[in-house]
Design goal:
By secondary structure, the protein is α+β, with helices and mostly antiparallel strands. The protein is built from 11 helices and 11 strands. The strands form 2 sheets. Strands 1, 2, 3, 4, 5 and 6 form a 6-stranded antiparallel β-sheet that branches. A 5-stranded mixed β-sheet has the order 7-8-9-11-10, covered by helices on one side.
Length: 448
């Protein structure tokens, strides 16, 4: 409407105030005014459009970054790792120099745990005890409201920094609410301007930053709830397995040991008069004790694999793949031909393989940040072939060859027990693959 109104105004002025004898000059000036007005309007109009497009691009970038941050949180279930990830991701999301998360005691509103990012371990040690929630950090807790401070040094609510604490200027904090209650407060400090090279240059946080951090805090609350639920599930599983192990000891192993003890007492009473019978009983007792040790070993191994007992390997791996997908939201594909239930593996081999797969999946969950995992099981001749592949961040094979972590060593030792060949392949940024080649043969009985 603005160009139309402007042109009508120009025509009105031309007709009303310009005499007929000056019509040529009036027409010329009218054209010049219209051209000037069109130019100014175009500059302003396209400037507004460009500004809107830039806002839209920034909004899309924020949505994409928020989505990626939320996905990154779903790859971990360990509570402490989740909390540290929340701080790291919030700092990256807001382009802030510092980040922190204060876990709140709901009764006292004081900080129970304080996780930081942007400060080294050495700097943390020099600062001393973590904050308790006084000053600006404690303002948010009772009501659970967001906080924006443009200049901490000029805010009357600030109580200052302790010795050796880095000086911070601007602060943005939002609450993390879990199940309707405040779990903690998420803070970022000193927003950096990506267009300025100077490392110490910072700008202030605005309402768009607050909204973005609040959205991320909602995602963080879900990840924290999942991690807490997983921890409770693990604790419950440990209690159940302890109870099962105690019952197994009482009902099976202890009874066997008691019976063997009675047999040895009987042999002792016959050593003088019936040495051959006593020798026979002692020999039988040695065999019985060997069986007790084998049973004890099976019970200990069953602490982790007991819920899969009685299943063939293919069914067990399929169940493990499904559980891994449910717990991590990672896409998991299990590939196995229809005849894989008949693999020819004995119970001990199956148990060792289940342990190895559990170790691999645990490493993927903790370290790989993978989006896709593929488990492949097959039999070729007298060999069973198992492959586990992920598209995660990978690791340095050279360091792994020089020792690696406990997980890799455990897998190598279990593979040796099976008489199996195990091969690792990994490349930074391209994922990891582990191949197992297991002979179909009965594991030799250990002597006791």
């Amino acid at each position: 409407m603005l160009p139309l109104i402007f042109m009508v105004g120009v025509i009105y002025i031309r007709v009303t105030f310009v005499p007929p004898e000056r019509s040529l000059e009036g027409n010329l000036y009218s054209v010049l005014v219209v051209a000037l007005g069109a130019t100014i309007f175009s500059i302003v109009f396209f400037g507004v459009i460009t500004h809107r497009e830039e806002e839209l691009r920034q909004s899309n970038k924020q949505i994409e970054a928020l989505h990626e941050a939320a996905l990154a949180l779903t790859t971990e279930l360990d509570l402490q790792i989740v909390l540290q990830k929340v701080v790291n991701l919030s700092r990256d999301l807001l382009n802030a120099k510092y980040g922190a998360l204060g876990v709140i005691n709901p009764e006292s509103n004081l900080i129970l745990q304080f996780i930081t990012a942007g400060i080294s371990k050495e700097e943390r040690a020099l600062i001393g005890s973590p904050p308790k929630g006084r000053g600006l950090l404690g303002i948010m807790s009772p009501g659970g409201h967001a906080l924006i401070v443009n200049d901490i040094s000029k805010d009357a609510r600030a109580v200052g920094f302790p010795p050796n604490h880095p000086v911070m200027h601007s602060l943005l904090g939002v609450p993390i609410k879990s199940k309707g209650e405040i779990f903690g407060n998420l803070y970022v400090a000193d927003k950096l301007d990506p267009n300025v090279i100077e490392a110490d240059f910072h700008t202030i946080f605005d309402e768009s930053d607050r909204q973005l951090l609040e959205k991320f805090a909602t995602q963080a609350a879900i990840a924290i709830e999942n991690a807490q639920l997983y921890r409770k599930t693990q604790e419950l599983a440990i209690l159940q397995e302890r109870e099962r192990f105690g019952m197994a000891l009482h009902d099976g192993i202890m009874q066997s040991v008691y019976a063997t003890g009675l047999s040895l007492q009987e042999a002792q009473s016959r050593i003088t008069k019936e040495p051959q019978e006593a020798e026979k009983r002692i020999g039988q007792s040695i065999q019985d004790l060997g069986q007790v040790l084998r049973d004890l070993r099976n019970y200990i191994m069953g602490l982790r694999t007991g819920r899969y007992q009685g299943q063939d390997l293919a069914t067990t791996l399929s169940q493990m793949a499904e559980e891994f997908h449910v717990n991590t939201l990672t896409n998991v594909i299990f590939e196995a031909p229809p005849n894989t239930p008949v693999l020819g593996l004995n119970e001990e081999q199956t148990d060792e393989l289940v342990h190895i797969v559990q170790e691999v999946l645990s490493n993927i969950r903790k370290h790989a940040t993978a989006g896709n995992v593929t488990l492949t099981l097959n039999r070729k001749g007298n060999r069973v072939l198992l492959s586990i592949k992920d598209d995660g961040i990978g690791f340095d094979m050279e360091n792994a060859a020089n020792g690696g972590g406990y997980g890799l060593r455990n897998m190598r030792e279990r593979a040796e027990t099976l008489g199996a060949d195990i091969k690792f392949w990994s490349e930074i940024g391209r994922g990891t693959q582990i191949n197992l080649d297991i002979p179909v043969a009965v594991v030799k009985e250990k002597s006791f």
